[in-house]
Amino acid sequence: MEKSSKFLIFKGRTNVLIVTNDNKEAIIVDTGIDEDSGRKIAKFLNQNSLTPVAIINSHSHADHIGGNSYLEKKFKIQSYSTKNECAFIENPLLEPLYLYEAFPPESLTIKTLAAEPSSCNSIEEFNINEFGIEIIRLPGHSIDMIGLKIGGELLFTADAFFGIDTLIKHKIPYHVNVKNSYLTLLMLKEEVKKFNAVLPSHGDLIQSQSEAEDAILKNINAILEVRDLIVNSFESKKEVESVISQVLNHYGFSNVPLAQYFLLKSAIMSYFAWLLDEKILSLETEDGRLVAKKI
């Protein structure tokens, strides 16, 4: 456990940030993947004699909202996020639905993709001033993800970038809008210089500006590597599914569980959107297949 006078970090598969004020009240920032995560957070709060007053969700992915329902009921508190993220927090089935592009089979309604539903209110309705925090918009990994600034002390970056170990393991970073993720990373590369420490949702607390910049640069390079791989795969017209297969095989994801396949496919399709918007590729249908070509 790392601790300061203004925040505590409950480390786990998904880091949970606890922001406190002088009255021993606390905001829980993200809640892990399930009810068990919520129980552990509740125990952590009790051990530190803190009274939670609200949950702030950085975004709507299941590993960040899974403990919401339990904590809301136990402490009679509410959750807050951006309006776009609230739509998914209140209706978690939307995530496997858009990944599968239809109503998903039961094998895709697992807790890693669809958490328990919980209430969600616009972050603009919650007074964060007394906790000395400021919202920072970090779109890309999710539609309208946010992070937090705590004075000049801590910048919480949610899933805007991943720790080096996580990046090495997953190879193709998941971003629902990779173009926005790229722009967010360029912004963060400068923003981290203003803070003593940076906390990503997955990875260790970073207390060196050069280390934070290096992690962000590695995330930028990982995005550009996938983008270049897709662009360079085109000599002529090519079926989109074959490009997806080529990228997956390149990174060693030839045979993966169904849920992981749909996440990876969604991530790769985000690159296609970026390349289409920049007029580098075009899409059309041919013989009942979706095909792309360089412009």
Question: What is the element layout, followed by pairings?
Answer:
Elements: E1 2-3, E2 7-10, E3 16-20, E4 25-29, H1 35-47, E5 51-56, H2 62-65, H3 68-75, E6 79-81, H4 83-90, H5 94-100, E7 121-122, E8 133-137, E9 146-150, E10 154-158, H6 164-170, H7 178-191, E11 197-200, H8 209-232, E12 238-239, H9 240-250, H10 258-277, E13 281-286, E14 289-294
Parallel strand pairs: 4-5, 5-6, 6-7, 10-11
Antiparallel strand pairs: 1-2, 2-3, 3-4, 8-9, 9-10, 12-14, 13-14
Helix pairs in contact: 1-3, 7-8, 8-10
Organism: Fervidicoccus fontis
Keywords: Hydrolase
Domain Metallo-beta-lactamase: 13-202
Question: What can you see in these coordinates?
Answer:
By secondary structure, the chain is α/β, with parallel strands linked by helices. The chain folds into two domains: 2-209, Ribonuclease Z/Hydroxyacylglutathione hydrolase-like (Metallo-beta-lactamase, Chain A, 4-Layer Sandwich); 227-294, Arc Repressor Mutant, subunit A, CATH 1.10.10. Helix content is 39%, strand content 20%. It has helices at 35-47, 62-65, 68-75, 83-90, 94-100, 164-170, 178-191, 209-232, 240-250, 258-277; strands spanning 2-3, 7-10, 16-20, 25-29, 51-56, 79-81, 121-122, 133-137, 146-150, 154-158, 197-200, 238-239, 281-286, 289-294. The strands form three sheets. It has a seven-stranded mixed beta sheet with strand order 1-2-3-4-5-6-7. A four-stranded mixed beta sheet has the order 8-9-10-11, with no helix packed on it. A three-stranded antiparallel beta sheet has the order 12-14-13. A hairpin with a 4-residue loop joins strand 3 (16-20) and strand 4. InterPro entries: Metallo-B-lactamas (IPR001279), NDM-1-like (IPR050855), RibonucZ/Hydroxyglut_hydro (IPR036866). Keywords: Hydrolase.
